[in-house]
Write a structure and sequence with these properties.
The protein has about 260 residues and is an alpha/beta fold. The protein is built from twelve helices and seven strands. It has a five-stranded parallel β-sheet with strand order 4-3-5-6-7, sandwiched between helices. Strands 1-2 form a two-stranded antiparallel ribbon. The chain has helices spanning about 10-15, 20-30, 45-60, 65-75, 80-85, 90-105, 105-125, 130-150, 170-185, 195-205, 225-230, 255-260, and strands at about 35, 40-45, 160-165, 190-195, 210-215, 235-240, 250. Helix 9 (about 170-185) links the parallel strand 3 (about 160-165) and strand 4. The protein has three domains: about 10-75, Multidrug-efflux Transporter Regulator, Chain: A, Domain 2, CATH 1.10.1660.10; about 80-150, Orthogonal Bundle (Methyltransferase, Methionine Synthase (B12-binding Domains), Chain A, domain 1); about 160-260, Rossmann fold, CATH 3.40.50.
């Protein structure tokens, strides 16, 4: 399943900006769409939209447009970060990850920094003997800082439940969602990888506004679990593993998740 992209007109409408404003930001500051279609047309990705929203937040907080753009384009020291990853320095990696979330927020840090780093670490796992250790150290550091943010908004009756399907091994996106929700003052509870019966029972007991169920691949997706959850709460399929499910609400990445669930 491909990640959705948007035209400049669609993004302008989404953000409440004019098309000339977006064109001006691109021309003056280099804030441009990063995706090109096969026909050569430029499109904004979810990460691009998250960057623009962060720029708007900076401007609303009093920054000039040029300063906001400069702040947005600031990058952490990639060589220093990769050096910390190469030497498996968990303290240094955690520090850099915490700075990223503090400076940019979870959504931007996850989509533009953590996901690419994790992808690169996964590729290294395939080509180097030390790859699996590197991926684990990086994942653990990112998990720690996501949990720190998520714990700011805890509640016995959370508005959102976050679960992976029972056979899904990857649960880090759940903590990214919890961290993003906490920044938006939405309470959530991470269930992790649990049997569908448990998620259904908690949905019935807690009556949350929504239940987010993550699956990375079609092999781990459980449409029947979604159907049962929907009898008690708003069931949202999350991740690339669900394919096309008629009349089923699906989100593909963190930006979409937070946009949808911010309004529950």
């Amino acid at each position: 399943m491909t990640t959705p992209t948007w035209t400049v007109t669609a993004v302008a409408a989404k953000l409440g900006l004019s098309v000339p404003t977006l064109r001006s930001w691109e021309r003056r500051y280099g804030i441009a769409p990063s995706h090109r279609t096969e026909g050569g047309h430029r499109r904004y990705t979810s990460a691009d939209v998250a960057s623009l929203q962060h720029m708007q937040e900076l401007i609303r907080a009093g920054a000039s447009t040029s300063d906001a753009a400069k702040h947005l384009l600031l990058e952490p020291d990639p060589q220093g970060l990769w050096a910390a990853i190469d030497r498996m320095d968990s303290s240094a990696i955690t520090h850099q990850a915490r700075l990223l979330i503090t400076r940019y927020g979870t959504e931007y840090a996850w989509m533009t920094q953590f996901v690419p780093l994790l992808r690169d670490a996964g590729e290294r796992w395939l080509s180097h003997a030390s790859g699996i250790a590197v991926e684990h150290v990086l994942s653990d550091a990112i998990l720690l800082v996501l949990q720190e943010t998520a714990q700011r908004m805890s509640d016995d009756r959370p508005r959102v439940l976050l679960a992976s399907t029972s056979h899904e091994q990857h649960t880090l996106p759940l903590y990214a969602a919890a961290s993003g929700f906490a920044e938006r003052r939405i309470t959530s509870r991470v269930l992790g990888r649990v049997p569908g019966d448990v998620v259904v029972a908690l949905a019935e007991e807690l009556k949350p506004d929504a239940v987010f169920v993550w699956a990375r691949s079609p092999e781990t997706a459980e449409p029947e679990t979604l159907r049962r959850i929907a009898e008690h709460a708003r069931a949202i399929a999350a991740g690339p593993g669900w394919g096309e499910l008629p009349q089923q609400e699906i989100v593909h990445d963190l930006a979409e998740t937070l946009r949808v669930l911010t309004h529950v």
